[in-house]
Amino acid sequence: MNEEKELNIKVNPTSNTAITTLIMLANAKYEKALEILEKMGVEKETIFHGVDPGDMINRPSDIVRELRYVALNRTIEESGLKTLIDLPCGYTPKVFEFTEKGMQYIGCDLPAVINDFSPIIASMTDNEQKKQISFRIVDVTNYESMKAAADLAEGPVCIATEGLTVYLTSEETRQLGVNIRRILSEKGGCWLNADVETLDYYMAVFRAVAGDRAMELLAAARKGFSGQSDTDLHKNNAAVVKSSGGSLATDYEKIEALYRSRGLLVEKVPYFREDLRLHLFDAMTDEEIERLKENMKHVNVWKITPDPDFKEEENAVWDSSEADIDTELPFEVKSSLRDGLLEMSIQGRMDTITAPQLLKQFQEAGEGITGIHIDVSRMAYVSSAGLRVLLIMYKSLKDKDSFELTGVNAAIREIMETTGFDQFFLKP
Ligand SMILES: C[S@@+](CC[C@H](N)C(=O)[O-])C[C@H]1O[C@@H](n2cnc3c(N)ncnc32)[C@H](O)[C@@H]1O
Q: Which of 107, 167, 203, 347 can bridge 332 by disulfide, Cβ–Cβ 3.0-4.6 Å?
């Protein structure tokens, strides 16, 4: 792995999760998924974990991914919009599905994914197809990066989200909503979010194949995925509640109210269609298919549009964390090392796109660092990727008291307090 990719993955390991989705689609016999994997150098033999009917972990997990893929693609098509912003694109073959249907395709993801994926797709497409396809590095918490991608669109956009929000903190999910509202207000179109009902589409599949053992097997499947990212699925979703019987459920009214308060209106589009067909139906019994179809009737893609009556100023409380600092400042890290003390200052937004610069400078400072002081008074925002780098630096010190952040402004303090990082970085 080259140095740049290594830094990118350290800063945000969620990029690893995209390969799993691709493997699952390949396992469900999506030809283009297989081709992409081959181009990535993955051996065919390692791809197929098979569709053993007795495998109650991999088989339902594959069905979950294919179901979500098919349901979301169908909803994208039905939107009638001409441009798809795939946010995040991961390595999925959606690019082929939609360019074949004549849509403009804009694939957006973190640097580790885009740097790998865009040359692969370039090698699989002819000049005509290439005209319809663009890739952009986007961190969904970073409005400028999203706007740059959206500006490639020729008209109103369909923003499709699949397998993203379970990896975001609640603050990052808030930013995503704010950014999408700004983009849709300007360009028109809609946001199709297949993630809100994650727990329910997993349950729909696991109940169809595993009946009463669904919860137990779902928990085992989730455990298997937890090594791919340091963000635990659902941990950040405050709307997931435990019922008195101990089973999990999502409080959809709460989520909808949150969207509404951010100027976003919700319409629910069921996953179910009479003529729905999955490749993996071949690996299911007729009873399982019938049960799945029944369960799916209660699961929805959320179609989200900006509320035309929303008044930004009245609701500015959502953006107040950014109010006391200039968010336009370009990202910059300065550092100097003297007698083992590394002194740094950070300016601008520290997110997945910019945080590798800080990690690089820290690594270049070498061994033997005994203290780290960072002036963050001009840091406008820090995402979980930035916090992750600060944590790597903090953990590298023997004496944790010699790590100090100075000039912590209100915006950064609020983020640290809500994520619990204040216990490491903010001295009482
Ligand atoms: C489970 S994958 C899903 C990818 C794709 N939608 C699919 O279905 O295969 C999660 C993706 O989210 C991306 N991601 C995580 N945090 C992100 C962020 N802050 N901004 C943009 N993409 C992000 C990761 O790089 C990864 O590709």
A: 347
